[in-house]
Write a structure and sequence with these properties.
Blueprint lengths: L8 H5 L11 E5 L4 H10 L4 E6 L2 H13 L4 E5 L5 H8 L6 E4 L14 H29 L2 E6 L12 H21 L4 E8 L19 H12 L9 E4 L19
Parallel strand pairs: 1-2, 1-4, 2-3, 4-5, 5-6, 6-7
The structure holds 5-hydroxy-NICOTINAMIDE-ADENINE-DINUCLEOTIDE PHOSPHATE.
5-hydroxy-NICOTINAMIDE-ADENINE-DINUCLEOTIDE PHOSPHATE binds next to helix 2.
Length: 259
C-alpha cells in the first residue's frame, strides 16, 4: 500500500522545513469588521488567531465567532499606528501568517485633503506595514517559513481623481510587497498581495450603491487560497473584481447602476 504523507511532509522529508507542531498562528490587522473580520472567519477553522483593531467590542464579537469555528483567539485592541505598543504585544509571538489588512481611504481631491487626512492614510496604509511586519518577520525567517499577505487594491495599479493619497498608498503596497518577496523568498517566507475591486464594507460612505460589489467573504476566500497554497507555490498577486459594475448581484435588486 502506498504511503500518504501530509501536505508539509514533502518539504520536511527533503530537509527544508520542520514539521508544524500545532495549528499555525495568523495575525490579522483591521479584524474588527469588513474584509479583516471575514478573513478571520475564513482562517479560523485551520488557524489560531491574533486579531487587532481599535474597536475592542467588535473585535470580541469576531473572536467569539472564530472560536466557534475552532480557533484559539487573542485580541489586541490597539491603533495600528502604535508601533511601540504593537511591538511589545507581539514580542516573541511566533506568527506564521500575517495579514496586513487595516486601511482606510479618504477619497478627495488633493487640494481638499487636509494634512491630518493625508498623514492618517499614510500612517495606517503605509507606515503600519513597516512596524507590524518588522515585529513578526524576523521570527518567520528564523523558522524558515511564514506568509506575509497584504490587502492592496485595484487602486494600487489604477489612478483616479480623488486618489492622490489613497492610490498612492496602494501603489506603495505593490512596490513594498514585491521587493520584500525578493528579500525573503529564499528564507522560506512568502509575500503576497490581494488586490480587490470594490467590496461592500464600511470603507464606503452610507448611501453608496453596493448592489454590484464583492462581499468581504470573496476577498477572504482569495486570502485563504493564497495562504493555504502548497509551501512551494506562491500566489504573489491576486486580483479579485466584481464581474460587472452595472449588473446587481443575485438578490440585490435589478435596476442598479455603478456608483
Ligand atoms: O474597510 P472597513 P475594509 N488602527 O472600513 C481598521 C482595502 N480595500 O474592510 O480600528 C487600527 O470596513 C478598522 O478597525 P477599527 C482597504 O484599503 C478595500 O473594506 O476597529 N485599525 C477596520 O477593522 C483596507 O486596506 C476595498 O476601526 C484600523 C478596518 O481597518 C482593507 O481593504 C477595496 C485603523 C477597516 O475596515 C480593509 O478595508 C480595495 C487604525 N488606525 C481595498 N484604521 C473596498 N472595501 O472596496 C482602520 O481595493 N483600522
Amino acid at each position: 500500500m502506498a504511503l500518504v504523507f501530509p501536505a508539509w511532509a514533502g518539504a520536511y522529508l527533503s530537509g527544508m522545513t520542520p514539521p508544524p507542531t500545532s495549528r499555525p498562528v495568523a495575525l490579522i490587522t483591521g479584524a474588527s469588521r469588513g474584509i479583516g473580520a471575514a478573513i478571520a472567519l475564513r482562517l479560523a477553522p485551520k488557524h489560531d488567531l491574533i486579531l487587532t483593531a481599535r474597536d475592542a467590542t467588535r473585535l470580541a464579537e469576531v473572536a467569539t465567532a472564530c472560536e466557534a469555528l475552532g480557533a484559539t483567539v487573542r485580541c489586541i485592541a490597539a491603533d495600528v499606528r502604535d508601533a511601540a505598543g504593537l511591538a511589545e504585544q507581539l514580542a516573541g509571538v511566533p506568527v506564521d501568517v500575517l495579514v496586513n489588512n487595516a486601511g482606510l481611504g479618504i477619497l478627495k481631491p488633493f487640494l481638499e485633503t487636509t494634512a491630518e487626512e493625508w498623514h492618517r492614510q499614510v500612517d495606517v496604509n503605509v507606515n503600519a506595514l513597516y512596524h507590524v511586519t518588522r515585529a513578526v518577520l524576523p521570527g518567520m525567517v528564523v523558522r524558515g517559513r511564514g506568509h506575509v499577505c497584504i490587502i492592496g487594491s485595484m487602486a494600487g495599479r489604477n489612478t483616479f481623481a480623488g486618489g492622490t493619497c489613497y492610490a498612492g498608498t496602494k501603489h506603495f503596497v505593490m512596490g513594498f510587497a514585491e521587493s520584500l518577496l525578493l528579500e525573503v523568498r529564499d528564507a522560506g517566507v512568502a509575500v503576497s498581495v490581494i488586490t480587490p475591486g470594490s467590496v461592500d464594507t464600511d470603507f464606503f460612505p452610507e448611501g453608496t450603491n453596493r448592489t454590484w460589489m464583492l462581499d468581504p467573504q470573496n476577498v477572504a476566500d482569495a486570502v485563504g487560497f493564497t495562504v493555504e497554497a502548497p509551501a512551494h507555490m506562491l500566489v504573489h498577486r491576486l486580483e479579485v473584481r466584481p464581474l460587472s459594475t452595472k449588473r446587481p448581484r443575485a438578490g440585490h435588486g435589478d435596476s442598479a447602476t455603478a456608483s
